[in-house]
Amino acid sequence: MKYLIIDYGAGNTTSLKNALDQLDIASIISNNPKDIKNAQSYLFAGVGSAKHAINRLKEYQIYNLLQEEVSIKKKKFFGICLGAQIIFSSLEEAEDEQGFGWLNGSVSKLNSKPLPHVGWNQLEQLREEVYFDHSFKIECQDIYIKDTVAYNNIEIPAIIQKENIIGFQFHPEKSGIVGLEILKNYLLKDVG
Amino acid sequence: MSRKRIIGIITIKDGIVVQSIGFNTYLPIGSLNIAIEYFNDWELDEIAIIDISASKGYADSFYGIDLKSALKLSSIPVSIGGGIKSYDQAAKLIDLGCEKIIVNSILFSDENFISSFANSYGSQAIIAAIDIHKNSIYSNSATNKQSISLQNHINYLDSLPIGEILINSIDRDGLKIGYDIKLINEIETFTSKPIISLGGAGKMEDFLTLFKQTNASAAAAGNMLHFTEHSAMTIKGYLRNNKVNTRKEITFIYNDTKFIDNKIYKKTDKNEIL
Question: If you measure CA to CA, which chain A residue comes closest to B87?
Fold first, then answer.
């Protein structure tokens, strides 16, 4: 199966699958190691909590497997919201647990009010309005930040990418037609 | 900066979408599928589905309608609530295809629910709803008056790992007399969480008043948004014309005219206003 939505015991995985179905992109939701080895790309849905997600991945014995498939075998990884944050190893929300660490950087609480940053906001580069719902913010090198969003004068990375690893801080699967377009473009694009 | 939101409320009683007035009169509107499709097409920002049959025991009536297939129709976020009594029920709802749960009564009966659900799904996945009638707080579909003061309850919610607070004015429900501005202003002093205001919306001006006179993050409405095609778009155009920032996804195109912010443009190279 080409696209696998990782089942980590939480997340809006059904919503994400619904979006892929809308785009006519076949996918399965699974945490089975065999399915993970067979998949060519992974999606990590948001609506989850970092510590719990990482614990579950380890429980299902797929945390190390995903490390291998993504950072060594270079399979594509598309992370949404929590999924974008889990790309980094230093996660304030996860306490003693660590994210995958595929990019250098960290994730810490957004220093603003009100929290969460919830609602539609405009991407600075793509100029499209997409849906955000998060309280933590990614910090990483500019070179990996493909788009940002402004919230109370704070610039927040909204799309990050390093080769086969892509993170969306917003929810493209729930951002109307515009969101689906963005999702489709990234899923189907060759990252080389 | 994030936009002000218009949230469409879909009230379900015994499996069908209803219009509610004062929490005791219910008129049928129709099917959930159609309501969700219309709210998506008419440019609402979010949908909240509330099951009011649930005080008798959650969900038989709710799952009787095909909620899972109805949720496939929405490409904007959906929140669901109404009589949620356990972590498993809440998790099941997210699994059916939504993003957030709305809880009220369980806040008074199970103090562990919020933290255990937030631990798995994140605090942003929880909307705490408060039903207010004559300045008192009610739970269980407005049947159970709570003795806690508004201030104490809001302070309590502010300390919990939740995402947003939905303020529902039972007194104004269905009456189209505008939102309870005074109430929202009061509540804002007790919390820094995003507030959703519900109850009383009847005309475009009510939304403008809410966003000009309070810091509410979202305006929610049920009744008025179901009956008028494009009403959310009209409201948002009106808000933008009055300097309130709202989302603008698509412009409607009929024949060779475009409809943007309540003005009609002839679709030419110069986009002349008709």
Answer: A10
CA–CA separation, B197 vs B167, rounded Å?
5
Segment B149-173 mean pLDDT: 94
| Bridge partner residues of B183 (DSSP) | none
Instruction: State whether residue B3 sits within 8 Å of chain A by CB.
Output: yes
Confidence of residue A138 (pLDDT cuts 50, 70, 90): very high
Tokens for B60, please give them.
């038989």
- Tell me which of B1 and B213 has the higher pLDDT: B213
Q: Give how far Cα B103 sits from Cα of A61, B99, B223, Å.
A: 33, 13, 21
Is residue B128 less than 8 Å (CB to CB) from chain A? no
Nearest CB neighbour to A119, from listed B2, B118, B250? B2
Tracing tokens 């899972």 back to the chain, one arrives at B68
ipTM of the complex, rounded to two decimals: 0.96
Please give the angle made by the CA atoms of B205, B206 and B212, to the nearest 5 degrees.
85
Place B58 in a pLDDT band, splitting at 50, 70 and 90: very low
Write out chain B residues lying below 8 Å of A132, CB-based: 2
Say yes or no to pLDDT of A158 above 80: yes
* Cβ count within 10 A of residue B97: 23
Write the DSSP assignment of A68-124 as a string of letters. IIIIIS--EEEEETHHHHTTEEEEGGGTT-----SEEEEEEE---SSSSEEEEEEBT
Residue B57 has pLDDT above 50, yes or no: no
Which residue, among A38, A74, A37, A45, has the nearest Cα to A164 in the 3D structure?
A74
Query: Is the CB of residue A19 less than 8 Å away from at least one CB of chain B?
Result: yes
- Residues on chain B touching A109 (C-beta within 8 angstroms): none
**Is the distance from CB of B72 to CB of A21 less than 8 angstroms?**
yes
Active-site residue among A69, A81, A128, A140? A81
pTM for the predicted model, two decimal places: 0.92
pLDDT of residue B175: 83
